[in-house]
Amino acid sequence: AACADVDVVFHIASYGMSGAEALRTNLIQEVNVGGTSNVIQACINKGVGRLIYTSTYNVVFWGSPIDGGDESAPYIDPAVCWDSYSRTKAEAEHMVLAAHGSTLQHQQQQGQHQQHSQEQQQGQHQQHQQHQQTGQQQHQKQQGGGSGMLNGSPAHLSDSQPSSSSSSSSATDSAAAHGRAASGRGASSSSSGGKQVGAQGAVLRTCAIRPAGIYGPGECRHLPRVVQMVRGGLFQFVFGQGDALVDWLHVENLVEALRRAAEALLPGGPAGGQVYFISDGRPINNFEFFRPFITGLGYPFPSLSLPYRLMYFIGWLLELMHTALKPLGINFTPMLNRSEVNKCALTHWFHIDKARQQLGYTPVDYPMEQTTAWFRER
Fold it and tell me: Which fold, 8-104+203-376?
């Protein structure tokens, strides 16, 4: 019902990105894959012409550095990827792209109903014409019979009947031919209309955008956890190589990318069946990105740096603790898991040239102070 009378759907829901929820594999599968399947089917059933899927870098990045990648990067291998979020998001993205070009049932039903109505109207019109011609024929017969009787010449009536019959037959044939022609034009118009509608929206058009980590005023996934750790005295060190680069994406740039993707999915647009990396276009070290945010909140930036492998091992231990304590009714939330360590410490940034060229996407440079002020007030 939510998709009724809707032109475009932005599918942004997901589950399992970070924290304890990243270890709830069944729910991750249910939401990311099952939920996406439901969205696709709802779009098809309700005649929604455009579907934009909000994917993630994780569909191609898992644990190996990617220095300046693009949309040609292969998907992660689900057979070896232990991260449920990455695996299910890749599967869901593939489903959305595979649905591109699917026939919209709602549009098809409307087209069939319209064609049936046209054929019914044409049949009634043809029947009315034939009824008129039959009435004219009977009238001519009556006129011809009266003349024959008055003239006392039955042969005159006999001679006139073929003429009348021929005239009537010609008129009837003409009407029938006109009906066939009208029916033919109607069918041609309906068929042409169907093809035209098919090109303009009788099929589902889909694309996927792959946003980097999102930040900005009101962001409720990454920054609140950082604020919680900073205020709780837990942010005492950084880790990984100082030259590792990642992408970030301001929420306003994300909204702009979604809007432009919707426009590019219109008939004749380039986005159908495509994927796009979306970011601010300024790769930066992950912890250096947070430096102005942390100091802006009034806290010192940590000077201690730990090696990546140590943090990866700690993330693994925290995951084990979560799994071991769960049967005991203890809801232990890992401060970090292995996937988050990889995202923080390993280089993975992507060019956004394709989005620039095909979507007309141009990211705006938003100062971190804007975001810091929003969180400082809360």
Answer: Rossmann fold (3.40.50)
As a whole number of angstroms, the distance between CA 221 and CA 213 comes to: 9
First to last CA, the chain: 37
User: How many whole angstroms from its chain centre is CA 122?
Assistant: 39
What pairing do the DSSP bridges indicate for beta strands 205-211 and 237-239? unpaired
SS (H, E, C) 278-308: ECCCCCECHHHHHHHHHHHCCCCCCCEEECH
Q: Are 262 and 207 in contact (CB under 8 A)?
A: no
At 308-341, the pLDDT tens digits run 999 999 999 999 998 899 899 988 888 889 999 9
How far apart, in whole angstroms, are the C-alpha atoms of residue 100 and residue 49? 10
Rounded to whole angstroms, the Cα distance separating 96 from 52 reads: 8
**CA–CA gap between residue 18 and residue 15 (Å, rounded):** 9
Length of the chain: 378
Show Cβ contacts of residue 373 under 8 Å, excluding neighbours closer than 6 positions. Answer: 296
Going by C-alpha positions, the residue among 350, 257, 272, 255 that lies closest to residue 58 is 350
- List the catalytic residues: 85
The mean pLDDT of 3-28, rounded to a whole number, is: 89
Q: Is the pTM of this model over 0.70?
A: yes
